[in-house]
User: Fold this.
Amino acid sequence: MFEQVALPHLDAVYTAALRLTHNSDDAKDLLQDTILRAYRFFDQFKIGTNCRAWLLTILYNNFRNNCRRHTREQLAATVEQFDHQAETRSLVDDPPLRNPEELIATRMAARRFEVVLNSLPSEFREVLILVDVQELNYQEIADVLEIPLGTVKSRVSRARAMIRKAMLKAAVSRGKTGS
Amino acid sequence: MDCREYVDKFLSAHADGELASRERRLADSHVGGCTACRTRLAEERSLKVLVRQHTNIVKVPAEVHLRIRAAIGEMTDPNFIGRNLSTRGQDSDRRFLWPMRQTHVWAPIAAAAAVLLFLAVYSGRSGTPAPATQFHPVPVFDLAIIKYDSLTRYFVPNVPSDRNGTDFAWVMDRRDSGQPDAGMREDIGRSYSEADMPDDLFNFAPTGYQVSGGRLDRLTDGRPVTYTLYRGSRDAILDIGLKDPEMSAPVGAVYWIGMHSFYEYKGYSFCLTLSSPGHFVSITLTRAPLTELIRDVAMADALATSDDQ
Assistant:
């Protein structure tokens, strides 16, 4: 039963673990501990509810309890730092222009989006990943992160607004420089 | 509803399908009559797609899959540890019948043996004659190595616990700061004791190891198993404790002291401690050289002895 219900979500849980730890060894251990813990407490899982959300709740609890202090936090800590970091990274990391113009524009836009997304303060990026990638609903995210439902709503909204603003700013900036 | 209210309060939840039916009707109604907000909603949905595209789900490496399945198999099989060690033990004439770390009974002997051994190791003499190292596979040691590799990399203590093992962070946060670990050993020991497991943890502090935390788990047959992790500046020591009346030591020990037998196996140093009263078993392992483990155990025994006296 456990194998059928829980193990299909291994990749999703591992992806979340990688996002949290920024280190594949730590992520593997965090994943293993999460799955074994889930196995031991599987009788507490309510059949018919979202098993991925349940596993992610255990993952985040484990991470909060032990792993966070060991990871190298390279993310923007505040909203104010976000703008600066996104801008700085994009200037440094932009690839040289060697391909046809349209392709470059697409690639650079993609690259810029990645930079912007990864520069989001972690609490904002976290909710976006959970809602858009892990496909959890707001209540499940609130349970996973142990925050109020209203906070989830406002973080999702602010996160997207921040991305939009950063992308617009980048577009305007590129328009001015003609690149 | 005006555009500002829609964007500030409804837009994201609308794109995510998180609006209640009444809110959704209002939002749909506004968007239906507002080109700008309809565009914003389309953008918001595109943004969701972009986030998904740029955050790929990563496949779990095959070896991690195997490790997890093996660990689940271990938890599923109630006799896994005992059976394997017992099987190996049938070849062995060596049984250690002294109580595990109950130094109040054997204190003088243990103290003398520990000190002599410690001196022997550090004066370069060989101590107890060691037979040639064999090694047939010893499944329980292989399992212990898997546990060691996993737990030394990522250890989540769950004792002391205040909600059936679900809240234990304070152990690490409160005490893992280089402070003397006697209090932590007492706290962990108390939790072990409540599960009818030995509560006298090794004191490796004199040789530079502090208790990092303790775990109390159960095999699927209900038997408790304890994991106590000690960390030093270079290495870690993991002590695995369980109860098994049928367990006996595998052949191939290279050193003995009292109830402890020592092994070198696949690059790890092992100390196996068997106790007849209570049938407790302790498997202590580290990546540090065997001589260091012998010294650590000997010193811990000597210290426990002096404490008792």
User: Anything to note?
Assistant: Chain B touches chain A through 39 residues (CB under 8 Å). The beta strands of chain B are 210-218, 224-231, 236-243, 255-257, 260-265, 268-274, 280-286.
